[in-house]
């Protein structure tokens, strides 16, 4: 499929506003006010949606969240990026008032949590990491039942269900049992379910973990549609690509600590600032000494050498003629930032 | 700490209905199968033991053995139905299916969930106990219309055993532990509480133990009603059952809060 055809398909799938978002990277969205969802939100709402101040949580002797502070503005997509065990899910649970912090203060939608978590939850939608739909109920029944948990009458739920089904692209599956749906459809239904109370803030905990690439793109596209509607999103993920594509800002977590925070590209520029040459297929330690003089910095991870070189051609020349080596030159990404900051890879 | 516990209590008097309705909706789809399953077991006991042992036993406390046994089986079936629902089905919704987790994202509190689950388990106990009452009355082993008074007691019995089972559910790491509660608590209780034979035949110490057990209070209320006899000590029996429904409810709430909201 040519780029043009892809573009056409995309245009069909997305609304005009979605497409603008798709075409405009997250960082530019921030700087170009007119295309930003944030700009469509009245000024009175452009406030802090979520604020963590010095939040600490430990289980036994293990500190899971360590003096964590961050703020999320209304209408932005904020990422919590980190490997498994970095404390992402615990942060999400604390935000919902399902776990009490040992120290620090949390404010969500202007309300202190966990003290008034129930009030805060009125304005929050949750897409959990693990599928917890009612398997034995149909798609429509799942939405109806969930509406009741928010005190919505059957009539009130029935009024919003068609638009939710349309959002989830499940109009034709309304009467199908959840157990008959594919993984991607289930996740779309979970997103639709999270919208039943028309929340201002949506918390998505690893929304694409365990999905195939096709379903992942569908979720990303739906997520963008939510941003276009002016929703605030907190996204936890360990996929750099996901964070880079979707997040206006993010914080990189390691063992519950905020080790870097900012816009994805700004973080990459600040911490890496050049292209990356990946070299593999040889003894990394032998190669290290060869390319070191031409590199700003070098990381070895497994059998791969990550060479951060201002002039990659010099490195290429240096390695010229060595059999069995594979070289890959690519732009720096958040994985490199994580590697730089922690000395290890994100995905374990 | 007390504030945290207060936040987990039922939010209001009606939130639990949403939880009850979720369970009802899911159950409706398989209702016929589960009704037959729930009824078959106590019916087989009733007619198997009633007719088989009845021949040897003759009359018990002035009634035919099967009529004596019927009241015991009604109470036991209510106990079993609500226990099973709370141990296995509610545990699945809490643990493996994560249904409770989804509920906790909403306006529903942990207390609303527990209350909804208990009410649902009591509903199933009510259905099971009532069905057996009607069958035995139709066959002439229980008295119309006084059996109608048994219905609220069956519902209360359902609440009691749902509440007790919720404590076990809150404490169990997995399904495997439920069998201890069933074999070490419920089965002895069935034999000590006068469900299958009169408890006044037991040694004095066992009788004292039986008096502390909720099942014997339920049977002491249900049996006279079904045999159309005067009931003694209604307030005491209802009071004991009420305590057995309420205290474990609050205990299970505290335990579940520690388990799920840590």
UniProtKB/TrEMBL annotation, chain B:
Q: Where in the cell is it found?
A: Cell inner membrane
InterPro entries registered for this protein in UniProt:
ABC2_TM, ABC2_TM_bact-type, ABC_2_transport, ABC_transptNodJ, Nod_factor_ABC_transporter
- The main location class comes to membrane
Which residues fall in a coiled-coil region?
A: none
Question: What Gene Ontology terms describe what this protein does at the molecular function level?
Answer: ABC-type transporter activity
Q: From which domain of life does this come?
A: Bacteria
Query: Tell me, which GO biological process terms does this entry list?
Result: oligosaccharide transport
Q: Determine if Flavoprotein is one of this entry's keywords.
A: no
Q: Name one GO cellular component term.
A: ATP-binding cassette (ABC) transporter complex
Segments spanning the bilayer are 30-57, 63-91, 125-144, 150-171, 178-197, 234-256
Q: Where is the ABC transmembrane type-2 domain?
A: 33-259
Q: Which UniProt keywords apply?
A: Cell inner membrane, Cell membrane, Membrane, Nodulation, Transmembrane, Transmembrane helix, Transport
Q: What does this protein do?
A: Part of the ABC transporter complex NodIJ involved in the export of the nodulation factors (Nod factors), the bacterial signal molecules that induce symbiosis and subsequent nodulation induction. Nod factors are LCO (lipo-chitin oligosaccharide), a modified beta-1,4-linked N-acetylglucosamine oligosaccharide. This subunit encodes the transporter.
Q: How does it assemble?
A: The complex is composed of two ATP-binding proteins (NodI) and two transmembrane proteins (NodJ).
Protein family according to the UniProt entry: Belongs to the ABC-2 integral membrane protein family. Lipooligosaccharide exporter (TC 3.A.1.102) subfamily.
UniProt protein name: Nodulation protein J
């Amino acid at each position: 499929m040519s780029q043009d055809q892809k573009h056409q398909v995309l245009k069909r799938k997305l609304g005009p506003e979605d497409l603008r978002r798709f075409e405009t990277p997250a960082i530019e969205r921030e700087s170009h006010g007119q295309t930003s969802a944030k700009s469509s939100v009245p000024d009175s709402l452009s406030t802090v949606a979520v604020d963590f101040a010095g939040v600490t949580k430990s289980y036994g002797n293990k500190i899971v969240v360590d003096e964590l502070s961050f703020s999320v503005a209304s209408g932005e997509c904020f990422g919590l990026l980190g490997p498994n065990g970095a404390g992402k899910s615990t942060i999400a649970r604390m935000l919902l008032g399902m776990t009490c912090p040992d120290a620090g203060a949390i404010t969500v939608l202007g309300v202190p949590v966990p003290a008034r978590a129930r009030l805060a939850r009125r304005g929050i939608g949750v897409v959990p990491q693990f599928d917890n739909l009612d398997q034995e109920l149909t798609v429509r029944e799942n939405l109806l039942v969930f509406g009741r948990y928010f005190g919505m009458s059957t009539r009130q739920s029935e009024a919003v269900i068609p638009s939710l089904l349309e959002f989830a692209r499940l109009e034709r599956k309304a009467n199908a049992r959840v157990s008959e749906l594919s993984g991607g459809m289930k996740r779309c239904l979970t997103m639709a379910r999270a919208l039943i109370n028309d929340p201002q803030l949506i918390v998505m905990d690893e929304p694409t973990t365990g999905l195939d690439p096709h379903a992942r793109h569908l979720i990303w596209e739906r997520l963008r549609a939510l941003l276009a509607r002016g929703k605030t999103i907190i996204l936890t993920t360990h996929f750099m690509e996901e964070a880079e594509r979707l997040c206006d800002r993010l914080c990189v977590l390691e063992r519950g600590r905020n080790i870097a925070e900012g816009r994805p590209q700004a973080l990459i520029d600040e911490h890496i600032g050049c292209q990356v040459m990946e070299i593999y297929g040889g003894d990394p330690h032998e190669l290290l000494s060869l390319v070191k003089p031409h590199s700003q910095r070098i990381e070895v991870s497994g059998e791969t050498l990550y060479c951060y070189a201002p002039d990659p051609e010099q490195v290429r020349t240096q390695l010229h003629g060595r059999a069995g080596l594979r070289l890959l030159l690519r732009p720096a990404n958040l994985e490199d930032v994580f590697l730089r900051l922690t000395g290890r890879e994100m995905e374990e | 700490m007390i504030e945290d516990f207060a936040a987990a209590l039922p939010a209001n008097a009606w939130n639990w209905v949403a939880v009850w309705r979720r369970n009802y909706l899911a159950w409706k789809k398989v209702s016929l199968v589960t009704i037959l399953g729930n009824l078959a077991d106590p019916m087989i006991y009733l007619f198997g033991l009633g007719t088989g042992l009845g021949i040897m036993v003759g009359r018990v406390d002035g009634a035919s053995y099967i009529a004596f046994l019927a009241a015991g089986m009604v109470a036991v079936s209510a106990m079993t139905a609500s226990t099973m629902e709370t141990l296995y089905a509610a545990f699945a919704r809490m643990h493996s299916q994560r249904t409770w987790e989804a509920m906790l994202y909403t306006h529903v509190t942990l207390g609303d969930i527990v209350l909804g689950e208990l009410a649902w388990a009591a509903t199933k106990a009510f259905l099971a106990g009532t069905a057996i009452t009607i069958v035995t009355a139709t066959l002439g082993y229980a008295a119309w219309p006084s059996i109608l008074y048994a219905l609220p007691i069956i519902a209360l019995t359902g609440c009691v055993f749902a509440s007790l089972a919720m404590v076990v559910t809150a404490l169990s790491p997995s399904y495997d532990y439920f069998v201890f509660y069933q074999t070490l608590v419920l089965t002895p209780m069935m034999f000590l509480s006068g469900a299958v034979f009169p408890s006044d035949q037991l040694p004095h110490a066992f009788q004292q133990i039986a008096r502390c057990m909720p099942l014997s209070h339920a049977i002491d209320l249900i049996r006279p009603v079904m045999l159309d006899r005067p009931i003694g000590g209604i307030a005491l029996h209802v009071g004991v059952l009420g305590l057995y429904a309420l205290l474990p409810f609050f205990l299970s709430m505290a335990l579940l809060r520690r388990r799920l909201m840590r």
